[in-house]
Write a structure and sequence with these properties.
Length: 109
């Protein structure tokens, strides 16, 4: 990830609009800010969410609340709980998210 120069800024996430993104099941609620090419999001997954696609984009992902299961293209599954993160680069390993009881994440990509 390249971080070009951009101004110092604070974000009050409670003030950010929410976009709904349906999954194969459930939905993801995104609050998004862009800083040049950097996208920063708070994403809240509903209970029973399953992504409708395999993602190959790189992310830095931090679990704020709940539990996120990430299925990897190599057959592994990893689970994030509050205080845990994962990092993956663009094109490194396709992954797909799901939740049983919901999750809230901070994501930079």
């Amino acid at each position: 990830m390249q971080m070009p120069p951009f101004a110092f800024e604070t974000v009050d996430w409670a003030e950010q609009p929410v976009e709904t993104h349906p999954g194969e099941t459930g939905e993801a609620l995104w609050q998004t800010r862009h800083f040049g090419p950097i996208r920063v999001r708070i994403v809240t997954y509903s209970p029973g969410y399953l992504a409708d696609h395999w993602c190959e984009k790189g992310h830095v992902l931090y679990c704020l609340d709940g539990e996120l299961e990430t299925e990897l293209a190599d057959g592994r599954t990893v689970t994030l709980t509050p205080g845990c993160s994962y990092q993956v680069g663009d094109g490194a390993l396709a992954h797909r998210s799901r939740t049983r009881r919901g999750a809230r994440l901070f994501i930079v990509d």
